[in-house]
Amino acid sequence: MPSTPAPIGRLSALLAALAICAAVLMAFAPPASAASLDQLRASGAVGERYDGLAVARDAAVESQVKAINAKRRQIYQEKATAEGVSPEQVGRVYAKEIVAKAPKGTWFLREDGSWVQK
Known about the structure:
Elements: H1 8-26, H2 37-43, E1 46-49, E2 54-56, H3 62-83, H4 87-101, E3 107-109, E4 115-117
Parallel strand pairs: 1-3
Antiparallel strand pairs: 1-2, 3-4
Helix pairs in contact: 1-4, 3-4
């Protein structure tokens, strides 16, 4: 049987719960010897996607972005399981929080493939 979308109330509760957890994402940073995530964003080396994942705009930071996204995917899966929604839905909610909290100059990849800068 195909899954049905989560009721609006459940998504509202998810939004509230994820808003509290959004600060956790902002703490995701590369190893201490590397630049911070905000520094990488400000330099343009790292951007953010519409689905709550980071994207390497510079191949030199690809391994850092993979580590960031692995942590994010883990959180998205945990929240999705707890709320009975898909990890993709959770990622999209987090993406909105990331946009709101990311520093000026951060690049964002839209769903249509275009880039915009905050």
